[in-house]
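Continuing the series of single-chain predictions for the mutant panel. This is the parent chain; the variants come on the following pages.
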Amino acid sequence: GGEATPWSRKNILVLYRRVEKGRWSAGVHDPGGGKMNTSSNEALLARLEAVERDLIQVQEDADSGWLALCGVLILGMQGGFMMLEAGTVRNKNVVTLIFKNLWDTCIAVLGFYLLGFGFAFGETQGCVIGASNFALSELWNGEKVGGVSGSTFFFFQAAFAGTAITIVSGSTCERMRLEAYCAISLFLSTIVYPVAVHWVWGHGFLSSQACPDARGVFHPIFTRSDRSNGVIDVAGSSVVHVVGGFCGLVGAIMLGPRIGRFAPLTGEVLPIPPHSYILVAFGSMAIWVGFFAFNCGSTIQITGKGALAGTILTNTAVSAAMSCVTCTATSLLLDKTSDRLLFEKEYEALRVQNSLVNAEAVGYRRAFKVSHAFNSLLGGLVAITGSCSVVSPWWAALIGLVAGWCYYLSSKLLLRLKIDDPLDAFPVHGVCGFWGSLAVGIFCTDEAVQHAGYPHVNEACKSGEQFAVQLVGVIVIATWTSVSSFLLYYAVQTFDKLRVPETMEIVGMDLVDHAAEAYRIEADHDEIGGSIFRMQKTLMGSEQPPGGGGSPPEQPNGGGEHRASPSGDQEITMSRSKAGRLDTLSSSMESIGALLAGASNNNNTSTHGGFSPGAAINSCAAGFEIDTEYRPHASAPPPGMPGWGGGGGGDGAAGADGREDRLQAHAHPHEGAPYKGGGVRTALPRTARLPPAHGPPR
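Parent structure:
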């Protein structure tokens, strides 16, 4: 029962060799009454001690290697988050999401290295924050932390920090400025997240190793003795996911919804579906694989804990699967989906000008929601992280079942409150993480807690004290995150640097912030920048590269007429066949849909050769009513083109240089109606100037 003396340890080693190997028996007696007096046994003891040191070193190397492998896989989860977010947003913001995920990982590593690690695991000050080991000043030359390499331990924790930060990008995507997001990432990685880590995993007041005194005795809440365990959070339900989820929620509220997410007059939820379910699926599965390392790596060591790691693997898989099945079945039973996509042609036929489609005529049916399936899968993974080593697989299944309902109900609640969370990051991470923290106190057993390596032997789980500790802990962490995040968001908003301008949001952040597009529709014209110009180029039937020159395309059976511009340097063909091409410009309409939405149907544009720009737009953006007027700056109509001008009467506006296309969009009483391209009507009365037929957009 006491500490072994060197003499007893030597005798145990010798007796082990004597019994197991049988290589010697003389000169060695039982530990209680014999003596060791031969020189051969002394040499043998020295060799055994050397072997013992080697075994200890092998154990430390194995544990460090285990932790390094798990850290690499957790860092690889950033690729999964990147694909999940890029697939969920519209294609005009894909490049921005990819860059943000890369950028926040880099910021997390640097911020956690310089300050965060010291605040999280440094010497505690008042059981609130660490105050040493900044920039790893004390982790060098093989220093150990928890029996593993200190540098490896830092890398593992830095990967956790990156996961917490990237959650925020899902809640605030498609409308937050890049500069603001960088500031939020730096603040989270250096202050908010490290403080929460110190409270639970360091020597903070919520930890099982809380507030050590001079004798090394810990004082966890509530009893401040070994009769309490402190907050149990094996892999970060509260520390990682509640922090990221609540910070994202505050950001989503302060930013407001995306343009076109809710109908301005009725408040109806308008769908903005993912642009690539393939990326969503691949990203979600990559995150699932990474979660096995996320949870198993939290054992820190693998030697002697192989069985515990197996339990964690089983619980993680069971909880995720149950959550996915539960939420998908619930959505299938309770939600009804419009048949608009299935009966697209019938839907178009039902559309009556200046009126909304009769929803009952279109019909509704039950459908398997892919987004709900993958998001609830992630919700089940989040919920089990807090208790993955202290519950049985049966309880893990129940935790996953409740997590599926928590995700479904909280996602619906956000929409009712008009809070736009594009990736449902708060329902997945904030709500399911909150539930996972409480589930520890509900389903844990005292034997499992001790088997998982927690230092105190008590009956906190049996008595119900552990649930109270978990409740207090998760509320404290959620409050700390919400208040500190609000202060930073408010400071950024004060300088008007939080949300992107409205025009930038409509066109897409890819072109404005990165001068790039994720998907190139017209690769033959590198100078063409922006979906608006592509729309106008197709509308006017121009096939020439920027800069003019070349000959007009061949006219099929007189389907259009060739005209020369007043200056003689542009040749434009207007063809009936061009109107059909507008139906394929779904990506362009996504970019300018909100600009055109809500317009009236008073079309003043004259037609020529059977082609009307306003009518062509209407044929593409079903559900729009658009008022367009074309005013060429010319003293007289071009030869062979009578009636060139607004209203079809030949009274074109006079001018001497070039031409001007003007598309006026006016608010329409029927806002919020869906249209064929997947977008919606919104109230955005404005005037948009289309660029010249040749050359980059203004």
